[in-house]
């Protein structure tokens, strides 16, 4: 069973956890995902039934990370 742990630090870590948590709580048929704070880092853990499910989950959650960071930059005016 493939698994991945992604750690994201920085000022947007807490916002990332609150933004992604509803999506991470949804267990899908072939993946299980958790996101939490560990100190000042957001920690995203993904377990998948196979590499295809892992690739899809990683693509989805990394896109969420990018969107969250872009929104934060836009709202703070630091594009």
Your description of this structure?
This protein is α+β, with helices and mostly antiparallel strands and 79 residues long. It has one domain: TATA-Binding Protein (2-Layer Sandwich). Helix content is 48%, strand content 29%. The chain is built from 2 helices and 3 strands. It has helices at 13-24, 51-76, and strands spanning 3-9, 31-38, 41-48. The protein has a 3-stranded antiparallel β-sheet with strand order 1-3-2, covered by helices on one side. Strand 2 (31-38) and strand 3 form a beta hairpin. Helix 1 packs across helix 2 (51-76). The radius of gyration is 13 Å and the shape is elongated. It starts with a strand and ends with a helix. The mean pLDDT is 91.
What CATH architecture would you give? 2-Layer Sandwich
The low-pLDDT segments are: none
Which fold name fills CATH's third level, the topology? Answer: TATA-Binding Protein
> On the 0-100 scale, what is the average pLDDT?
91
Sheet bearing the most strands, described? Answer: 3 strands, antiparallel
The coarse overall form would be elongated
What is the top-level CATH class? Answer: Alpha Beta
- From the alpha-carbon coordinates, what is the Rg to the nearest angstrom? 13 Å
The total tally of domains equals 1
What is the SS-derived class?
alpha+beta
Instruction: Please count the helical segments.
Output: 2
